C-alpha cells in the first residue's frame, strides 16, 4: 500500500474519530471516581445516549436537540444509579453492571424502528483557506464540534481538579469522605453531582457514536467502548492528560483492527478485531503490577453513611 500525505491524514482523522467517544466517557468517569463513585455502567449510559440521540435527530431533524437528549438520557441513567448506590447504599459494582445490562436492553427496544435509517452526520468545521490546507487542513480543521469539545474538556478538567476550590473539595470527598463530612461538606450531594456529570459525558460519547462516528443505529454499536473507557481511567492513573494520551492510543489500536488487512498485515482478521480488548487487559495488568492503587482515590467505591 502506497502512503501519501492524504493517506496519513486520513488515518489520523480516523484515529481522532475513534478516540473521541473514549475520551468523553473516560473524562466523565474520572470525575466520578475522583469523588469516590465507581460507576461500571458506562457502556449502558453510552448506548442509551447513542440511541436517544439518533431517535431525536431522525424525529426532529435537529442535531442540537439530539445531543441534548443524549446528555439528559445519560444523566437520567446516572440518577438511577446514584439513587440506588448513594441513597439506598446498594453495591456500586453490582449496580453498575445492572445499569449496563439494562441500557443495552433498553437501547435495543428504542432502536428497533431505527435500523436502516440514514443520517448525514454532524456538520464539520469549515474555515475558509484553513480547511483547504494540505494535510493540516484535513487533520485539524475537518472535525465536528464534539471532537474539539473533547480536547477542551481535558484542559477544563485538569484546571477544575487542580486550580479550583470545587475541584479540591471533590478530591477531598474521594480521598476521605468522613473527613470532608466532618468539616461540613455535603458528601452525598457532591457525589450525586459527580455521577450526573459522568452520565452526561457518557451520553455525549454515545451521541458522538451514532451521530458522527457511524451516523446510524445498530444494536450494540458501543461494542465495549464503555469498558475501554473505564480501563482508560486506571491507565491514566486518574490524570486527565493521560486520559487524552490513552484514548488516542486505543483509538489507534481500533483503527489498526479496522484497516489491518489494507495495511498489508498478514494477521487473521479475528485477532485484529480483539486487539482493542486485548490491549485493555494488558494495560490493566501492567499498571496493577506498578501498584496503581497508590493513585486511586482512597474512598473509591466505598459507601458513605451520613450518621458517621
Overall 3D form: globular
Number of helices: 12
Query: How many separate domains?
Result: 1
Strand percentage, roughly?
under 5%
Order of helices and strands: HHHHHHHHHHHH
Q: Please, what is the average pLDDT?
A: 86
Secondary-structure class? mainly alpha
Rounded Rg:
20 Å
Number of strands: 0
- Low confidence ranges: none
State the share of residues found in helices, binned by percent: 55-70%
Major β-sheet profile? none
Q: What is the terminal-to-terminal distance? A: 65 Å
GO cellular component, one term: plasma membrane
Transmembrane segments: 6-25, 37-57, 63-84, 96-119, 139-161, 192-211, 223-240, 247-265, 271-287
GO molecular function: transmembrane transporter activity
InterPro entries: ABC_transp_permease
